[in-house]
Write a structure and sequence with these properties.
The structure is a single chain. With 442 residues, the chain is an alpha/beta fold. It has 2 domains: 249 residues, 3-Layer(aba) Sandwich (Rossmann fold), CATH 3.40.50.1110; 176 residues, GAF domain (Beta-Lactamase, 2-Layer Sandwich). The chain contains 14 helices and 12 strands. The strands form 2 sheets. Strands 1-3-2-4-5-6 form a 6-stranded mixed beta sheet. It has a 6-stranded antiparallel beta sheet with strand order 9-8-7-12-11-10, with helices on both faces. The longest helix has 24 residues. It is elongated. It holds the Pfam family GAF.
């Protein structure tokens, strides 16, 4: 049967590609996420997941990754594990199996507890032969096996039925479905011997809206539930095998930035184009956290820049005095209730000065390359014995807004960016602002 299918694919490939190209024109009008390829679900000791692929990973039909597969998966996993979840996305509508090995080879796998792939729809539509598919998937799995830490999981999500998408209903779609079944079978066989890789069939979601099959948040939530059901036990096991949260962090220590990023001056200059948005975010942060001072920092090899600040005129400090550098090195939120009684900071000039720092809360930020480059933080000259989960949730949401703005500045022309997550009429009353942020889904 496989030989007959291979021969049929060879004969039909030119017609398949023409048919698929014609049918894909129906997708040109459909919205897809244009913002930061990133989603967060609040919670302690966050698991990190990377989604790579086309098809469901792209987010056809919705305008943000929070409404697409990434956000749905983050929320589903948080419900199942009780921990926070951070999901990053590497998606391209044209991605094929040939792209998978280079992406896995170039990703910072040490940053993630699990990787989810959704490739196959373009291979089926283009008539990729089973032989080529086998070669591409085998190479991707070999790279994964050589690079991944024990306990991490690669979940290869199978391609759903092509004809379940109204755009591709027809004889061409029927033939592509025959190929999908064969490609999924090959993936199952190749992944089966690897203890750190699994496959998962993805069911077709019911009745996408419209003639072109526009997916809705409910469809992504259905897919995410299936994926989360497979991921959650593996994430729980990996988490339980670490002695502590600190031990969990150490497993991600490969390639960790410890002394600032070398191109910090260039990043600081680039972010000048997003100054208005960043200033608004730090002002909102100070108000929401009821703090006199808020900063957005970038760390260089020997200096901390304050690229946006509220309640302070200081443009920067030496790196050795930086609180944010500790948050960045740990890749975790840093809370310092009373700095003079913390041995890490007791002799810091920023602490020993008159009206020096007593309280600090900072959330590290990442650039699109996965490097931790700085933090969003608040500072107070009075100690605080309690930082509530609500405080952390507010700070995390504002840090996510800051990171999205920074990514937009990096990818935009000249850094001119307006972040949609910070409305122009955002409340400035601390009570109203906290209420709005806490009511916003993560």
């Amino acid at each position: 049967m496989s030989a007959l299918l291979a021969a049929a694919v060879f004969i039909a490939r030119p017609f398949m590609r023409l048919w698929a190209s014609w049918r894909q024109q129906d997708l040109s009008w459909m919205p897809r996420p244009a913002g930061t390829p990133h989603a967060v679900a609040d919670g302690p000791s966050a698991d990190r997941v990377l989604i790579i692929g086309s098809g469901p990973a792209v987010g056809w039909g919705v305008a943000s990754h929070d409404l697409a597969l990434a956000g749905s998966l983050a929320r589903a996993l948080r419900t199942m594990t009780g921990r926070g979840v951070i999901v990053d996305v590497i998606a391209n509508p044209e991605m094929t199996s040939a792209n998978l090995a280079p992406i896995i080879g170039g990703a910072r796998l040490s940053d993630y507890d699990a990787v989810v792939t959704t490739v196959g729809i373009n291979d089926a539509l283009a008539g990729t032969s089973p032989r080529v598919w086998r070669r591409n998937i085998r190479l991707a799995l070999e790279i994964w096996r050589n690079r991944v830490a024990q306990g991490n999981l690669l979940l290869l999500v199978g391609t759903t039925s092509i004809t379940s998408i109204p755009t591709f209903v027809g004889r061409g779609g029927w033939f592509a479905d025959l190929l999908v079944r064969r490609l999924n079978e090959i993936t199952d066989r190749l992944a089966d011997p690897l203890p750190t890789a699994r496959t998962l069939p993805l069911p077709a979601v019911p009745s996408p809206e419209g003639a072109s099959g526009r997916h809705t948040p409910a469809h992504y939530a259905a897919w995410a539930a299936v994926i989360a059901h497979e991921l959650a036990p593996a994430l729980d096991l990996a988490f339980s095998e670490h002695d502590s949260v600190e031990g969990r962090r150490r497993t991600r220590a490969v390639d960790r930035m410890t002394s600032g990023i070398a191109d910090a001056p260039e990043l600081v200059k680039l972010l000048q184009g997003a100054q208005a948005s960043l200033d608004k975010i730090v002002t909102m942060t100070a108000a929401a956290m009821n703090a006199p001072t808020a900063l957005l920092t970038v760390l260089g090899p020997d200096r901390q820049w304050h690229v946006a600040r509220y309640g302070i005129d200081l443009e920067g400090v030496p790196l050795e005095q930086s609180f944010c550098a500790i948050a960045v090195r740990n890749e975790e939120t840093l809370i310092v209730p009373d700095a003079p009684h913390d041995p890490r900071f007791a002799t810091n000039p920023l602490v020993t000065d008159v009206d020096g720092i007593r309280y600090y809360a900072g959330m590290p930020l990442q650039d699109p390359q996965g490097r931790y480059f700085g933090a969003l933080c608040v500072i107070d000259s009075r100690p605080r014995n309690i930082t509530t989960p609500s405080d952390l949730s507010v700070l995390r949401k504002l840090a996510t807004a800051a990171q999205s703005t920074i990514w937009g500045a990096i990818f935009s022309d000249g850094g001119r960016v307006a972040h949609p997550g910070v409305p122009q009429d955002a409340p400035t009353s601390p009570v109203d602002l906290r209420r709005e942020l806490l009511a916003t889904p993560a």
